[in-house]
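Mods, move this if it's the wrong board.
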Amino acid sequence: MASIRVVTDSGADLDPSVAKDQGIAIVDLDVRLGDIGPEVTRTWSPAEFWQQCAKSSSLPETSAPSPGAFVEAFVGALADGCDGVVCITLSSKLSATYQAACAGAAEVQDRIAVRVIDSLSVTMGEGILALDAARGARDGKGLDEIADVATADRDRIRVYGTLNTLDNLRKGGRIGSAQAIFGSLLSIKPVIEVRDGVVEAESRQRTRSRSLEYLADKVKDAGDVEVIAVAHAAASDVDQFISLLAAKFPRDDILVSYIGAVIGTHSGPGCMGVCFKLK
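Not the wrong board. Structure tokens:
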């Protein structure tokens, strides 16, 4: 029976222990915080990353992995006896990671078959696709079947989030200073959605509590949900948000993960996201 390895990137915000348990290899994007380079930042847990950000006046910066980093992961799968690789990446409309993975796959095409899937998503939206692909691999599904299911399932993934601060978006050049100040003065908490691979404004709520209620309502109104995950950037009120969701979903069925450095660089601390797959 063919053995398939699933590879994803650190933008999926999969807990390393979960990824290891599910047999998923993670390729790290490069993250820099001021003078601290990726060789150090990649050793930090998400909690440590947010602690370091709180001490620094610098905005984190990210860059896509090199094709060589993906080659290493693909060749590693070959060395472990795998017959093929399904690689699921961050949205190609937000990062060059997908292009790097494709270039890496081209380098090893004469050694191992690789299917690169653009998740058109971020954080645990991407992570849910990777977890589902890993489940398919364990069930003995073939390379193309796993890749085809992951591609089809992209349309069933929903990702919403609320930002606790607009500073990271402003400093990163995503919005103008006046708009950021306006939002801060009115305590506006933007709600965003990942739509067709791009981050779009979805709503503006006046308070943090209202924004969390709004996110919970989006899930409750979505219909039948197969998988749900909460991703947060060291948010102190994550338990409160989970309680809102627990009215519909048993707590044990809700995956919880940290938003790490890759997505957190743009979302800022305190961001709360909910990612789910429709049945």
